[in-house]
Amino acid sequence: MRTLRFFNPFGGRSIVPDVSVFTWQRIPRDENGQVANVFQAAPDWTIEILSPDQRQTKVTKNILHCLNYETQMGWLIDPEEQTVFVYIRNQQPIMLDEPEALLPVPDFASELRLTLEDLFRWLLE
Description:
The chain is an alpha+beta fold. It has one domain: tt1808, chain A (Alpha-Beta Complex). About 15% of the residues lie in helices and about 25% in strands. The chain has two helices and seven strands. The strands form two sheets. Strands 3-4-5-6-7 form a five-stranded mixed beta sheet, covered by helices on one side. It has a two-stranded antiparallel ribbon with strand order 1-2.
């Protein structure tokens, strides 16, 4: 297994989301065709899990920065409030807080069916 020194310097900032999802064709490769140690592109999907010591404003700014580049969707998961904010490029944010709510996903992950209840159950494991 290979450890990646992952960070995202793009648009004049380095973003390190909790989860970054890249479509297969956008995964950066080195000259040998291996996955690069440094990703210098916005992820296709960025997911942030709000920690008690984090400010929602700072995390939201990171998601919005990603959306200004190649990111299709961002999730801001607030475990304390059991809420997910979904950010889609050029759309109004969506706030979900009902356990049975189906979470929107990017088109490339359209087969993923995940409710809020499923998501927060995973975070407890």
